[in-house]
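Q: Structure for this?
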Amino acid sequence: MATYDGFFDTLGLRDWCGTQDSGAPMSMADLLAKSSGADADTSLRDFPFPSLDALHEACSAIPQSRDLTLGLETGFLGIRDALRVVVDPLTQPLSWALENMLWVMTETPWWAMIPILLVITWMVGRSWKVVGFVALVLAGLAFVDHYEVAMQTLAIIFVCAFICVLLGVPIGIAMSRSDRLQGVLTPVLDMLQTLPPFVYLIPLIFLFSVTEPKLYGIAVILYAIVPVVRLTNLGIRLVNPDVIEAADAFGMTKSQKLFGVQIPLALPNIMAGVNQTIMMSLAMVVIASMVSAPGLGILVLRGIRNLELGVGLIAGLGIVVLAIALDRVTKASLARIDASQTSR
Amino acid sequence: MTKKNVKVSIRHLYKIFGADPEGALAKVREGMTKAELLDQTSHVLGLQDINVDMKEGEITVIMGLSGSGKSTLIRHLNRLIEPTAGEVLVNGEDILSWNDAQMRTLRRESMSMVFQNFALLPHRTVLENAGMALATRGKARRDYEDQANKWLDRVGLVGQGEQYPHQLSGGMQQRVGIARALASNSDIMLMDEAFSALDPLIRTDMQNLLLELQDELQKTIIFITHDLDEALKLADHLVILKDGAVVQQGQPQEILLNPADPYIEEFVADINRARVLRVRSVMTDREPDGLVDGEVAPSDNLESIIALAEGNMDRAFRVKSNGETSGYIDMKSVVEALVPRRVDAQD
């Protein structure tokens, strides 16, 4: 007999529960109890928490916990097709962008690609030290024949970080202007940031086929967009209210204020957000290799799967140096912006 | 002296901070005081029945201690703060009925502002800051450059146009602030404690600069300060604010000689009266019995008269303005004027 039988009997819910208390063993614990041959009377120590499973034992009308997860799954599968109709065309440009960027960065010969990347580094950071460091990193990776995978990783990061900024900055601006929107979006951002990255992948796999680049693109973007949104919001809220008042007093319109005062003054914070976004997309791109994202992550995954220690370590270190290079470049540009307006 | 036109005028202005200003306003009109209002309804009475006329081409100084509502008051003039009740008339029109576009035009073209903390745009050069008002109207840099440079030169910042604000000292930053206000070519200038953040010597410099500019430009300036010396130095018309209400307003000399209540009396007690009082406030029509020892101007202060008399008590002077005798002044009346008048002694 189940512990909660008496509970349902006293409430007079026995009829609702259904009479046939199925004799089939429901759980491992039941089986064990059966095999040990004793229907030992339950002591107080074993008194179960009224969980779904425990209640189900007493009353079969109450679902088991596994029905909950099962229900979630069937529910998701139910709306999957409808969701796909909407999301698929919306995210198609992401697939194209990723495919094309991967193609460009791997098909361009190394003697053209490396100088191009160095020129970009110079334009962003204006620091020869950083350019030298990036050159060293790229040469090092190429020297150990990791050039192509490194380029694939970079291509994915460039596309995803760009889209994060493209979406994240306007969202952050909207948040800074409306306290209500901030109240709604903050828990969403908290969730995106703390949800284990693997969890993003599961519903995405159901939605798209694993061969599509947008599958990992979306996972990376969802994970990495958080800091740029947060810091844009924060940056704009932190702009000196005196300056905003002056802008008002001289009759600036809202857009003059936004583009002429708020965004430029929030730029150091926004750039810090971009830096974090790039770092987080790099972290996610490794995990995303489980769903066919190319690049260094594949090698890390091979290292784990086949216990190839060397392969995993070299690829892992490759990611580290890539991360340091990206961080130095964005920090250099941040320093450049800071230098032009350190005032307070 | 010709009667000057009233440029900006405030009528029965009330400002109440809190959840239900309208309800609180009714209570204030029934005679509730600031303290009672805060106690019973937790609304703050910011401004209470303010009536001030600001004349064209004059410097109106609004002075009060911190918390007296003076910064709140000046922000009503360009509607950075909306009043609870009352009227703000600019050139006879009630700007409270204006829409956003009209207000923007007013702020861009006829009312500029100078701030206590300068509030320059840190990411723009000094030149771009000075041209901010013009740039806001949609002018390209090459169109406003001349104007901006002209005013930067005028406030003593020749050749600093390409610096960034943080590279300048506080005094120089406020010069940029003034150049920015002047370059907008507005006829009204609001100055919110414009010199309070500067150290005393630089403050004096800036006050002299302002007076010098005012001689030349004849703008309508509304100046906020908590410093009585500064107020007396700059004001054509002085308004003293206490707890959100006007205690006394009028010519500074007038206020100094006839304080309306003990609060103002206490206020003016520490002032160097010899430096502030002018001959015109003390002179009489009565010709002195003895010899006239020299000529003075109506705008001379008493300090200079004492210096001229070399400390002797038996001197008298003729007051001349534009070549005509307008009165006489003797040392007896000078010394009398230096003793503060007690309000209770009058009653």
